[in-house]
Amino acid sequence: MGPRRFAVVCFVVFGFFAAAPATRAWGCEGHQIVARIAENHLNPHAAKMSRQILAESPIDPALSRYCKQPGLDAFIDSSTWADDIRSSRPDTGNWHFIDIPRGVSQGDWRTYCPPATSCVVAALAAQVQILRDPTAAAAARADALRYIIHFVGDIHQPLHDTTNNDMGGNCIPVSFFGQAPMETNLERESYSPNLHGVWDTGLIAHFAPPQDAPAPTPQQVADELAEADKIDGAYRAQMPSWQVHPTDFAAWAWEGHALAEKYAYGRLPNKVAIEKPRPIESCADDDHVSMRLLRFGEQLGDPYENATAPVVRQQLATAGARLAALLNSIWP
């Protein structure tokens, strides 16, 4: 990477980290890439039904949207709606992830999915049930489809399937290509950049066209969709093997959990020990977890990117292929 690209990427990525909510998996670009890839693989019936359902109950134009990309079709635009709606539906916050502790290899996912709050595995199953119900209200089916588009992306972000008393890596301050972590919330002891944000947006910004959130140009959006098609093409030969198995949300979560251990944590320059699980509400908990991990001085640059960016690309492709397979199974 040349020094000019290095400087530009660091500026863009840090600006995004500073502005974006910490738990917005994959960011605007990642979720839209997943949706684009899925759209490329929908059968005619699934494509028609998706368009019809979204058109019959469109997104409320009064809803404040973080991702304001112009010219997206309803399917791709729906991919980020679930993050925007959380402010008015706070009970859906836990639907975006499942906190499987590090050090756990297999087991019953329900152990990590409290019935009172739910998790991404249960939320996906519930929304598929609504979408499959032709008697459900039009608005409920449209919302279900939008949730599914988003949550399939979320569950393929490995740090949405794991935790180490660190809120899925949100409490691990890191220096990313020389940009040192800065405290963004004194009370919650939050820092940016952090490991979760690197996986959500930072790594994608290195291979997808960076966007000036919240108002990218039409050309930037076109470049992003072209990048999605490029990822689609690179992994198209592997997609049948990802689609041949029956949809299993729990298996997807365990798969992501293993990838988080091997790559997100496993490739850190300074190894983070597995913590004894305990309840966490912010990065100030667990004896000030973020302050403790700040002292590790994690420096993420080319070696970390080279080891993890291919995993990010493959997870985006896998999510898109599996989302298409799921919708194709609902509407053969």
Helix content: 40-55%
- Report the major sheet: 2 strands, parallel
Total helical elements: 13
Radius of gyration of CA atoms, rounded to a whole number: 19 Å
- How many independent structural domains? 1
Contiguous uncertain segments of 5+ residues: 1-22
Write out the strand line-up for the largest beta sheet, numbering strands in chain order: 1-4
* Classification by helices and strands: mainly alpha
Give the SSE order as H and E letters.
HHHHHHHEEEHHHHHEH
Averaged pLDDT? 90
The named CATH superfamily: P1 Nuclease
Q: What is the level-2 CATH architecture name?
A: Orthogonal Bundle
Range of strand content: under 5%
User: How many beta-strand elements?
Assistant: 4
Can you tell me the overall shape?
globular
Alpha-carbon distance between the two ends: 45 Å
Q: Per CATH, what is the topology?
A: P1 Nuclease
CATH class group = Mainly Alpha
